[in-house]
Amino acid sequence: MTTVQKIKEIEDEMAKTQKNKATSYHLGQLKAKLAKLRRDLLDPTKGSGGGGGGGLGFDVARTGVASVGFVGFPSVGKSTLMSKLTGTHSEVSAIDFTTLTTVPGTLKVHGAPIQILDLPGIIEGANDGRGRGRQVIAVARTCNLIFIVLDVLKPLADKRIIESELEGFGIRLNKRPPAITVRKKDKGGVAITNTVPLTNIDQDEIKAVLSEYKLSNCDVAIREPNATADDLVDVIEGNRVYIPCIYVLNKIDAISIEELDLLYKIPNSVPVSSKEWLNIDELIDRMWERLDLVRVYTKPRKAPPDYTQPVVLRRGRSSVEDFCNSIHKEIAKQMKYAIVWGASAKHSRGQKVGLEHVLEDEDVVHIVKK
Fold it and tell me: How far is 30 from 108, CA to CA, in rounded Å?
């Protein structure tokens, strides 16, 4: 039996098993088994039913400070949007599966180069390897932001299918890692503590998941409200990626104003028309907001700041040391101190800081060498 067939068998069993106190242990085991089989599919050397194979045309040299992946079904307008945004030619056609490899392009936003990746259209069953789905979703895992491009005439049905495919590949959209810790120990059995009520998981289900992973001695601490068995499995697996996502509802030129008002009620969505170039400015603004980048301007000695070429850093890696290293590795070693103006500085006249100082968007920095 192939890995895909085993996954299907477990999913069928879970679907027909009613959740109650008597079945919670069994369901916990099934969820853990399912996660382990999906992990095998992530590794092309495992799982005989994976399909796919090598990733020819899917390995892309990374450029820019962040990458945005376009994911969607065939013929929803990904390539048209990509071509117009970046000026890069991505084959456009009304027929399905025109884009067969990853097509990279670059879009400059507020002085920051953003890499845009047009991924081939995925099909239902992609996380099981169908339609080269494994390679497509594997590239999506490495992106800083995902655009799920949907046809406005059937957005919700397609949205659910694509979310399911990405979830099956360990991608968690618009979520943060659950506040659950599992710490292994040498002896003492299983100790479970929780600081919030366990509303969607019970002790039996927790023990079943731990048993499937052969964790007989460990401390489990749950601080996540409404935690589920899936959250626990995600923490134990440790290979999940948490990526922000924007739902791009394309082809709004084909619907009425009343229908457009309804589309705006879908969370994290931006309705656009890539063909007529409608509402693209809002899409770019939302992209910049979700990428959460930090622009830092350099100030040479006895000269005004250079606002034309910002040094762009990622939030969480935006210290003065990160700033120095992004220009040249030797600068941090030669630095005596830095003077910073902007949101992170305590004074408007500038603040003298060290390497560990965290910079904010649009700060100005002057480096003083030893």
Answer: 46
Q: Give pTM, 2 decimals.
A: 0.80
Chain centre to alpha carbon of residue 258: 32
Both tokens of 229, joined, read 């068995």
The rounded distance, in Å, linking the Cα atoms of 323 and 310 is 11
**Are the C-beta atoms of 279 and 252 separated by less than 8 Å?**
yes
Beta carbons within 8 Å of 209's beta carbon, 6+ residues apart: 28, 29, 31, 32, 229, 232, 233, 236
Q: Which CATH architecture has domain 293-369?
A: Roll (3.10)
Q: CATH class for domain 66-88+99-175+241-290?
A: alpha beta
Residue type, 15: A
- Tens of pLDDT, residue by residue over 313-362, are 999 999 999 999 999 989 999 999 999 999 999 988 999 999 999 999 99
- Residues 120 and 101: their CA atoms lie apart, in Å, by 6
Residue 119: phi and psi, rounded to 5, are -90, 150
